[in-house]
Amino acid sequence: MDNKEAHTDTGRKRKKGLNNIPRKGVEHGFAVISLMITVPIFFTAVLLMIVLPRPKVSEIEKRKLAEMPEFTFDSYFSGEYTADVAEHYDDTVPYRDDLKNVGYSFKTSFGIHTEDEVKVVGKPSVVPKPVDDNKNEQSENTVPDADENSITESQQENESSAKESQAEQSKSESSQESSEEEEVTVENGIIVVKSNGHYRALELFGGGSGSTYAEALNNFHKDLGDSVKIYSMVAPLASEYYTPSNYSDFNASQKDSIKSIESKLDKDIVSIDITDVLGEHKSEEIYFRTDHHWTPLGAYYAAESFAKAAGISFKELSTYKKNDMEGFVGTMYGFTGDANLNNDPEVFSYYTPDNIDKCMTYYYSTDFTYTGKGNFFNGVGDIRSAYLTFMGGDEQVVKVKTNIKNGKKLLIVKDSYGNAIPGYLFGSYEEIYVVDMRYFKLNLVDFVKQNNVTDMLFAMVSYSAVGDNADNLENLRTQVKGKKIVDEGLKDED
Asked: Residue 101: which residues within 8 A CB-CB, separation 6 or more?
């Protein structure tokens, strides 16, 4: 018994020694181990964030990243400086695009979708059918006299039915939508379509009347008078032509919106509707599949339409040198994260005019501070940023002096769609100015007058003309009035 008890006691003591390590000791041990692992990782990450080069441009998003702000006491005490510093470090994380690509691939693999970064039309929803404004005005404002009215109710219904049928036919012909149902993947306001063995991303259009845009152009005309000819050329999105029939209810007619704008413009403003012209060439590569822009070929047909409307000389495409860059994947991959787009690159082709060596491009900041001269067509190191070929991007003002001596000066007011247009007009104008409606910081009326501009072309995509971007046009007309504009680039002219 004594031996047995002794054996049992020993077992109890041994069991107590194995299982009764103090909990605080275990937790302390794990805490030490965690610190030994996480602290070096944290400091290594911080060190890498400091020493690794920070990108200046996002190739995926096709934009310049936030720059380190200049220090001033006013900006520091107002909090603006520290906020801008924080934005700079947040926006320029080393290997930003590579990390985004990894994230997109991970999300795509697990069926996770990002929020719509385009923020143009939001999530797909059925768009309302177009309403005949004239018909509404008649029904609301005109009460037919029973004695004088010779049209029967049945005739009115037949006439109304015929008008609706005509409107539907017009919409069908103008939008040039695909009559076949295609394989479609939806990413918020964008659809990815597989057709003819290739993937194409399309931004759906939600519609809009363009009243703000039209009003701004009318105000410019009032300020500038007849001495400056104003042209409006709104470019449709690719969805006007390539949306499958099974998704047509989610895509409004851009031709209808452009016609709505035209109806609101002063009669002396020339509206150039290019929807039918581009529709005639829809079988050609006039829009990128992987990018939200039209191709330089699409821009050529648009520029040709402008030249005809303006009555200026214009050169055939055969006189241009075609330059091909293979392996292009544009913004739509960044917007959607769809790996199919990334794995289906396309050729980026742009065209340089035959007088390019006789033209000089002058670059300015958005407040028209001169920064230097060079070529309109920039060399691009990374194929993903190929659309920066034209002027290097948006956040600058550009002046092109050509070898044409006709006294004509053109100002192009644009969003990024307009970047591909100026190169086709080097044989048409003596000088061409290009400003972006989103970034220009001077008064545009003063700019036009002080630089003796003769023609003014508003060239932008439909969602800029009917969306929030149009608000910028009135700002350009009213901001910073009365400032003398000095062109320091004149000192650098040959």
From this structure: 60, 342
| Among 11, 46, 62, CA closest to 380 | 62
Find the helix packing angle between 211-224 and 254-264, rounded to 10°. 30
Q: pTM for the full model?
A: 0.70
CA distance 414 to 465: 10
What is the number of alpha carbons within 13 Å of residue 320 lying toward its C-beta? 20
C-alpha separations of 394 from 64, 140, 390, 421 in Å: 9, 46, 9, 13
In a domain, residue 459? The reply is yes
Domain span holding position 485: 183-492
Q: Are 400 and 390 in contact (CB under 8 A)?
A: no
Which is more confidently placed, 285 or 383?
Answer: 285
Identify the three-state secondary structure at position 238: coil
Residue 181 main-chain phi, psi, to 5 deg: -80, 130
Q: Does any domain span residue 429?
A: yes
Model confidence pLDDT, tens digit, residues 92-106:
778 766 666 555 454
Domain assignment present for residue 113? The answer is no
Phi, psi of 217 (to 5 degrees): -65, -40
pLDDT digits (tens, 9 = 90+) for 30-72: 777 877 888 888 778 777 777 778 877 765 555 578 888 888 8
Query: Is the Cβ–Cβ distance between 333 and 118 less than 8 Å?
Result: no
Q: How many domains does the chain have?
A: 1
Three-point CA angle 237, 205, 305, nearest 5°:
30
- What mean pLDDT is reported for the chain? 81
Domain annotation covers residue 392: yes
Q: How far apart are CA 401 and CA 425, in angstroms?
A: 11
Looking at residue 167, its amino acid is: A
What would the DSSP string read from start to end of 258-325?
HHHHHHHS-TTSEE---HHHHHHTTTSS-B-SSSSSBPHHHHHHHHHHHHHHHT-----GGGSEEEEE
CB under 8 Å to 9, separation ≥6 — which residues? Answer: none
Place of tokens 């920039």: 378
pLDDT at residue 145, as a whole number:
34
**SS3 category, 132:** coil
